[in-house]
Amino acid sequence: MHKPLVVLYTHTDAIDVWDMWYGEYEKYLNEYEVCLCVNSGVDIDHKKISKHRKVFYDDNQTYTQRLQHIMKELGEETILFLHEDMILYSEVDHDRISQYTNLVNESKVKSVKLIYVGDRCYISNIHDELVENQYSKFSIQPTIIKTSTLLDILEDVDDLNIWDFENAINHYEGHYMAKIGNEKKRGIYHYDSLVFPYVATAIVKGKWNLSEYPKELSYMLSEYQINPEDRGTV
Which of the 8 DSSP states describes residue 198? Predict the structure, then answer.
């Protein structure tokens, strides 16, 4: 089975989220290698991450500079890129992840975003579960992609923060989203992923996103003994 390297971008400002992210990872994705990408100059002593590979970035750099550093440190890899507030809540479809990873490995596609966004799409002629529209370009959501491809995207934009980076990304050919069919719509634009069921996203403007994910987040906040009032909720 083809497994991407799980590249988890995070910051010590989100250390209160790590127990939840790693707890759900251990339930549903435990056989996948993880690389934790976190700001340097801090003492990382967290029981759940001590066993994992780490890449440290400079907190003074922009988001795009940090990603460039991380991708170069990783070398040539096929990765599943995500942030710590993209938290699994149900079983992952490992067979489909393997299929999509193989397509990326063989350069048949540039990337596969593991969530469907939008209302209209075109089905690719490569795989009938891969679709494209204006939202299929790379964005900060769980995505299977080569480090070299992400570097190409980064080199095509200026030094930007995360929000400006997403807006600046061009729509290149070969970037797709996974759409199985019968996905449940969640919010205005996106649908629940049937391949990689995750909260998209758990933190909004620094607060827990209970308005969109009341059932999933309430359960996990209780399980990991996290007080939502410490961050606040939306």
Answer: B
